[in-house]
Amino acid sequence: MLENGFTLAEAIDFLEQFETKTILKSNEMLSELQNGIPIYVVLDSRGFDKKACTQLYFADKHGNLSSVLKEAGRYLLKKDNDRKTFVKLLQYPLLLIFLLIVVLILLKNYLLPQFELLYSSMNYNPTLVVSFFISFMKNAQFYILYSLGFFIFLVASSNYVLRKYTPIRKAKLVTKIPFIRFYLRLITSQFLAREWSFLLQGGFSINQILDMMRTQNFRPLIRDMGEMIHKDLTIGETFSTALGKFSFLDQQFITIVMHGEKSGRLEHELLFYSQFCLSRIEGSIQKVFRILQPIMFIIIGGLVVAVYLSILLPMFEMIDSI
Predict the structure, then answer these.
(1) Domain containing residue 176: CATH number
(2) Which end of the chain, N or C, is less packed with Cβ atoms under 10 Å?
(3) Read out DSSP for 124-193?
(4) Does residue 25 surpass a pLDDT of 70?
């Protein structure tokens, strides 16, 4: 709509006709915009996505708002689709785990006492293998619950510890985790490459871009990076050398910056690189979803087989001993 000549206020007013449940919010947004409050501040105050707000913050500087709004919309749709895919991925395995825990509790409370009573009446001593599966049947539900509890504790304690660190130190620690490192490097590098490309095309200098990074508060990591790069530039280091100190940036990104500095086409090379990163991220996420589901079913299948063996092996052992 902005590309067709609508102002931002007119676009919001028009969209209000389709979203009747949000009239009050739309009126409030229009009032704030008419009072000169930037769109990224208006959206951030309503809990809007931080990355999208940061994109709009930079768009407010370079003026390419319509393009950034479309890009932010695609990002939010992709994020929502990934969330829905992940929820669907977990629904069936979690249901199976719940049913498995119920079965294990029933086996422990009703079937296992009958086995033990039968063993006692026949003076039968189970073998080591059978004893292992009986012990598994007794305690499997606790193993599952303990594992889930340990995972939740690990995530909560990690968040608590990381909260004490600066954003840059936190990012450097996260890059030591192999799987997460790949995504953090690509996502951070893609975001910077795209925004810097638009700003450079808008005629801003590197120092002006760093000032913008330092004055925004939507993404503390980007803000602190701007501070560090600015300090390095003031002591005579090159832009690419300053970027090379961040282990959470993709090495290709730094190489692109070095090449762009020499060729004088940094803004175009950064834009191409950001598109390349985006395709890599999307392809990798799809690959993870394809791999994760079979792994979860294999684990659950192994637990189901263990339950069956816990029931059948004692029966076979007793038949052989008769």
Answers:
(1) 1.20.81.30
(2) C
(3) ----HHHHHHHHHHHHHHHHHHHHHHHHHHHHHHHHHHHTTS-HHHHHHHHTTSHHHHHHHHHHHHHHHH
(4) no
